[in-house]
What does this fold into?
Amino acid sequence: MWRNRIIFIGLWILSVVGISWYGGPVSYGIFLMLTSIPVISFLYLLFVFFTYRVYQEIGTKNPIANHKIPYYITLQNEMPVLFTSIRVKFYSSFSDIEGITDDYEYELTPKSGIKLETDLICKYRGEYEVGIKRIIITDFLRLFRFSFKNPEPLRVLVKPDLVSVDSLKVNLLAAEYLREAKNNISRPDVIVRDYIAGDSLKRINWKASARSGKILVRKDEGEEKRGILIIPDTCRYSNDEYEYIPLENRILELILALSLYYVKQGVPVNLFALQKNGEFLYSTVNSESGFDKFYELVSNIYFDDRFTSEETALKMSETGIAAEESNAIVVLGKDNNNGDKLLRFLEDSGLTVNAYLADPNSSLEESV
It folds into this structure.
């Protein structure tokens, strides 16, 4: 483009020299023609800008990370004028589009269109924009170029991928830890009743409540079916989506991978996480048949910068959930001492605690 501009400017200067030194209708005609060309080119670009049509569509607005979904683009010229150059540039930080590059220039003949069919892959769990990010149009002499943001981007709400622990390259808990969790499984003989206003939160039987869908409290003491308690770090460490989306995706992948691993071993998994409005999520999964519902709950876990480990420990202390467990896994986001108070609280409660770190750029000992 710069070469064309330099050539054009050189010709225009020569036309000015021509009318200055020689004059005459030919020199003035060339000068007027060259002077009008950029005006016509600019008006042409404005015409294309207001009349072009770009449509895009995806197979679902709720895809799963790292799974292909159908993706369609239609470039349309509804005018009786040639559109010489239209380019589309794609969002690439969080998604990939197969088989289409954003450096290709499309030429649309009058009253015609181009339809492209391919697949789109979202890389991370979260809510973000995919597909066409910018549109670039160029005039017929390549003197001017308009680049502008797509006014109708596609926004998706992506669910986390369900992957194996091995693929995440994290160490499994020691075999002794797994055996201990299995040995703690016994038939529940706890007698429960409906919650009555005034009952202590520490007497709520959270496992039975999660199974029944209503709040139940212990009537008699007894041994409950124990498994593994997973506590994710739901603190949002940054307002920059390029930082928090990959990290939160990794946290949820770890939760799902570890949960599915232990469920397949016959070990129940209990999940505790702070959520909005001072509430918390507590859910139990003890079979593969119930994992779909558990997956949906994990997919919708909410992250907030107020959800510190201190707040998590405080809420667990108020509810007495930690007293019902013997083994805990804490999935931390970053190695920045945010999890210290939670880990200390769990250990003081008598739990065997193991920690995993989701941030691949940090390091943390597996056992704490």
Notes: The radius of gyration is 31 Å. DSSP finds nine helices and 17 strands in the chain. The first helix runs from residue 2 to 21.
